[in-house]
Amino acid sequence: MNYEERMAIIKHWIAEMVGRFDRPNHLIHDKAKAELQDMAEDLNYALPSALNQDQLVGTLERTARSIRMKQRTRTWPTIQMVVSCARESLPQDQQPRTAAPQSPTLAITDRINARRIKAGEPVAESCIIGPGSERLIGLNLVTPEDLESYRRSIAERANDRDLNRQKPVEDVDLEEITW
Known about the structure:
Layout: H1 3-19, H2 29-46, H3 53-70, H4 79-88, H5 104-119, H6 131-138, H7 144-164
Helix pairs in contact: 1-2, 1-3, 2-4, 3-4
């Protein structure tokens, strides 16, 4: 399917979809036309180019259902809502991978922390327990076995704190304390 065919399908779908809603008052004829054109371009950009015609039509049908369920007003949905609903409606094999880091900084930080864990160097507790450790394991940068010694160390420290916790001092004479 080439660009023109794909855009024809998307534009037809958008025309049918917005026909169910009221045009926002602030969009006069030229602005409404530009809004619909932008919506089509942005939707085309957001959907994977590998979709065949049946997958595209199916995705757009599921997108329309999702919009109807989420739209709170009777006016056109925003471009952001259309794109968001379309991404949620993609076929399972076209879904973006969620295990990938969200930013380049996070990817670098994850690799650094994984290297430190493998080397037995100190790392933040967030890399050992909680979502940080789950992300490192999910990205196959570390294994649960790599984290086991760190987790034992955290548990031992917690036990030591409990044992060393002092009992409250009762009836202390403040005059006997040297300040």
